[in-house]
Amino acid sequence: MFRKSLLFCLLIGYSSFLSSQNTAYVVSPSGDIKQTTNGGATWSIMGDAQQTTQDMSFPTELTGYVASPSGDIKQTTDGGATWSIVGDAQQTTEKISFPTASTGYVVSPSGDIKRTSNGGVTWSIVGDAQQTIRDISFPTETTGYVVSPSGDIKQTTDGGVTWSIMGDAQQTTRSLSFPTELVGYVVSPSGDIKKTSNGGVTWSIVGDAQQTTEDMSFASELVGYVTAPSGNIKQTVDGGITWSIVGSASQTTDAISAARETPNSTENLNSNRFEETIKIHPVPTHGQLQVDAEGTTLNSVIIQSVQGKVVFSSSDFSGSRATLDISFLSAGVYYVEVRTENGPFVQKIIKE
Q1: DSSP 352
Q2: Surface-to-core class of residue 82, CB atoms within 10 Å of its CB (0-12 exposed, 13-18 middle, 19+ buried)
Q3: Could you give the CA distance from residue 249 to residue 247 in angstroms, rounded to a whole number?
Q4: How would you classify the pairing of strands 152-156 and 44-48?
């Protein structure tokens, strides 16, 4: 019974993890909302926020917020189908960022920061970034970043009260997205992508989206989206190195928001007991992958892409160790599910 319950919880969590990375929303300047659940390949009309929209933020797959230029805040809890007025930030609003369903931030063009802790109902002045703002991104409730149009980066670690100069992306910046506290991305109006892995201190060129870019949003460290003003959508699954056309929202697009990867989504799918006994290495790999299941027997190994497509499956094992040849796979991120007599185990890998 324990094994069945664990397997059910693991597979549901794993499925939800993959689903969240493939779910994103776009909004037009007039408030038309569209959603994708397949990584941008197709988009469905979800609803209408019925207000002029400046920015949008979806901290989960179903809960999202839009803000008007004057600070009017609306919320959806059903994936954009219906929207309710929840509050008024009472300031000119440039961008918004909600790291959780209840905690969010708005920033004015001049850097004034306001915060809500009750889902946008009430807003309090918390600080001043003291620079012209192009975008804002809070990966957690207390750690956030702002960027100026010229690429100057500032960070807060106390919920917007104080801000410190971190670095300079050294490019004209259209959008900013930090999926984690240390990993972040900026994009220029022409699609040039830069990445930081140390909280904005240093930035490196990683790729080029090769399109005019209106907005950008990363669901995780590796999976992200950019949208053109016309609604053309591109996706990366390797941290901005390569970008593929995945679809078109078929509407004028003001903002895009990818549903955030649930914290500890893959890490907490496995019990400590399995983490101690199953090892998958090396990561990253160039083609050979070693699976060691100490003290148990391998039953099967399944590898899926970030889109949830099974790209490798084998049950031809007779012991606790196996060497897999995955050299045929394209470079990118994959999820390896190892099934043993003790239960399943999932680990994220990178194929170079």
Answers
A1: -
A2: middle
A3: 7
A4: unpaired
| Burial degree of 148 (CB within 10 A; 0-12, 13-18, 19+) | buried
Three-point CA angle 119, 121, 125, nearest 5°: 95
SS3 15: helix
Half-sphere exposure of 296 (CA within 13 A, CB side): 21
Residue 279 token pair = 């090892």
Q: What is the largest CA-CA distance in the chain?
A: 66
Residue 319 buriedness (CB in 10 A; 0-12 / 13-18 / 19+): exposed
The pTM score is 0.74
The span from the CA of 105 to the CA of 178, in Å, is: 14
Tokens encoding 347: 């680990």
Q: Of 346, 285, 295, 337, which Cα lies nearest the Cα of 319?
A: 295
Whole-angstrom distance, CA of residue 311 vs CA of residue 239: 20
* 149, 134 Cβ separation under 8 angstroms: yes
**pLDDT lower than 50: segments of the chain:** 1-18, 262-269, 271-273
pLDDT, residue 276, reads 53
Residue written as token pair 């009309």: 45
DSSP state of 99: S
Closest residue by Cα to residue 285 from 345, 331, 223: 331
Nearest CA to 89 out of 55, 58, 63, 59 is that of: 55
pLDDT for res 294: 83
- For position 308, what pLDDT does the model report? 64
Nearest alpha-carbon partner for 349 in 287, 295, 272: 287
Tokens 């907005």 appear where? 215
pLDDT score, position 130:
94
pLDDT at 37: 86
Radius of gyration of the chain (CA): 21
Query: What's the CA gap between 101 and 103, in Å, rounded?
Result: 6
Question: Letter for the amino acid at 201?
Answer: V
Question: Element (H or E) spanning 7, and its range?
Answer: helix 2-21
> pLDDT value at position 15?
45
Burial class (CB in 10 A: 0-12, 13-18, 19+), 88: middle
Place of tokens 């469905």: 44
